[in-house]
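Why run this: before we spend reagent on co-expression, it is cheaper to look at a predicted model of the complex and decide which construct boundaries make sense. The entries below are exactly what would go into the expression plan.
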Amino acid sequence: MRISELSAASGVPLPTVKYYLREGLLHPGEQLAATRAEYDETHLRRLRLIRALLEVGKLPVASIKKVIEAVDDHSLPVHTMLGTAHYALAGEVPSATQDPEWDSAQAEVDQLISAFGWRIESWAPPRAELTEILSRMRKLGMKPDLRPYAEAADKLVTEVEMNQISFDGPRDAAVEALVLGTILYGRAFDALRRLAQESESARRLAP
Amino acid sequence: MRISELSAASGVPLPTVKYYLREGLLHPGEQLAATRAEYDETHLRRLRLIRALLEVGKLPVASIKKVIEAVDDHSLPVHTMLGTAHYALAGEVPSATQDPEWDSAQAEVDQLISAFGWRIESWAPPRAELTEILSRMRKLGMKPDLRPYAEAADKLVTEVEMNQISFDGPRDAAVEALVLGTILYGRAFDALRRLAQESESARRLAP
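The model came back. Tokens follow.
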């Protein structure tokens, strides 16, 4: 298809498509003549991925470039490619503080990780994030028990979310599914928790 | 205690304590002399609540005022007071759009709510939020099944979170516990989901 047809089919405005081409986010079409290039399914898929990273993942263009590089580097195994996207979504990672609260929270997070047999890189952003949250909860006087939350997360991820990603299809599509699933199921769960809270508060207090 | 002791005990800087007094967020101490007022436990609890709303809930001062008004209005039942805080945390609520996707998503959300026997106000922010997320997921071509998420949310809220709020103690403390629990367990669950995703991706793809 022509670039105007690519724009129409994807819903991405023509100047934006051209911008992605200039930035190297979108690969060039096949040059048929000096003023005409042919675009195909792979371009449509790439535009879907860019839109997911931009609009749902809220990633800046620099981070999107890194994710796209990992998608295009076919020497990278799928797990590594997905990890690049996954870590990019994490935003700013809290850094360890020099206090005993941090160390004990980190130890508890690591115990939880090993209790579930999870395979996690030591530099994984959610490991530091969970440590920060747990240490914060303790400083505020809460006595959180994260185990039931970890169980629920494990079950939802292994039984629902990961089944919705096709790992042996196009690399763009796998990353897109991971980004959409991570962000949108996360937001949906948050809204569901708030609904359950409202209802439970009504049940206990306004019978 | 004197105002300087209140500042030291709460960890809130003295100028900030004075600002909260001027703004009416903190109730005046008992005036013992022209230049001396006495503060007590209720002031400490109020400062904890303000900090929770500000630092964890990230609420603007205008919203904090509304929540504090509900706490101070003892004619409001506890459920209504908690609801005021809960809805304040929701931020901007998406408004219904005039398309069939929104209507069908709204219908599915309402089916879910009634399947779980949840008691939810029709104007509850998470009802509109979930509708917006579901309709967005569908427009992006996802086929989400929210039921397992609703089940997990229901279980965690009724069996863990709501048990950590003391409903018959001081009103400040109940609202503080609700705010901390809503935000921090939410963030913890999100980090746990990401850990489970990383591990499951490793298990499936890099055995």
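Chain A touches chain B through 75 residues (CB under 8 Å). DSSP finds nine helices and two strands in chain A. Bring this page to Monday's planning discussion.
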